[in-house]
Amino acid sequence: MESPVADDYLKAIYHHTEWQDDPITPSQLAAVLGLAPSSVTEMVKKLAAQGLVSHRPYGPVSLTAAGQRRAASVIRRHRLIETWLVREFRYTWDEVHDEADLLEHSLSDRLLEGIDERLGRPRFDPHGDAIPDATGAVHREPFVLLADAASGHSGRVLRVSDRDPALLRALVDRRIDVGHELEVVSRDVVRADGVEVTLPDGAGGSVWLTR
């Protein structure tokens, strides 16, 4: 079932466990996709029948090996396109997510390979998310969510969630970007480039640092 709808489900399941270990529940999946729980239940059954997810009634949903490969392939497309748009077309990191959603299903494998080669086979997208290689493998450093980092912790920004464009813009205004060094002063304050800044709402759950 290689359809955009199925891909959206597989991507959501993949994303949920990418930066934490708890599997996604059907209700969480419905919330992420903005769909009715009954619709999600039916699609999960179809994906399970295709061997792409494993699921038992009222239990969490997990990707099978085949589902993992398919999800990684779609994620690879999406993140390469985001990187391409930023580097080649001067998009900002808060503008690329929706554009990549539109393009990820339309580019040929040949064009995608050409983009990957032209960009120098990048390992991370503009938000710090790992780009799976052609085999689906990813490489990450040990990380900690900013909200869980203790006062005094220093680390490099590894990843920033791309779900909220307004938050991305607010973080850039505060010198908080992928690759920048941060020191946690308190739950609401960090030191970025030597300057103490107050975190915007939602930042603690949207920024990951090196451990």
From TrEMBL:
Annotated HTH dtxR-type domain residues: 1-64
Protein's name in the database: Manganese transport regulator
Primary location recorded for the protein, binned into one broad class: cytoplasm
Key word DNA-binding present: yes
Keyword Transcription: yes
Family matches, as SMART domains: FeoA, HTH_DTXR
Complexes and interactors: Homodimer.
InterPro entries on file: DtxR_MntR_Metal-Reg (IPR050536), Fe-transptr_FeoA-like (IPR007167), Fe_dep_repressor (IPR001367), Fe_dep_repressor_sf (IPR036421), HTH_DTXR (IPR022687), Iron_dep_repressor (IPR022689), WH-like_DNA-bd_sf (IPR036388), WH_DNA-bd_sf (IPR036390)
Record-stated family: Belongs to the DtxR/MntR family.
Gene source species: Microbacterium mcarthurae
Subcellular locations according to the entry: Cytoplasm
Domain of life: Bacteria
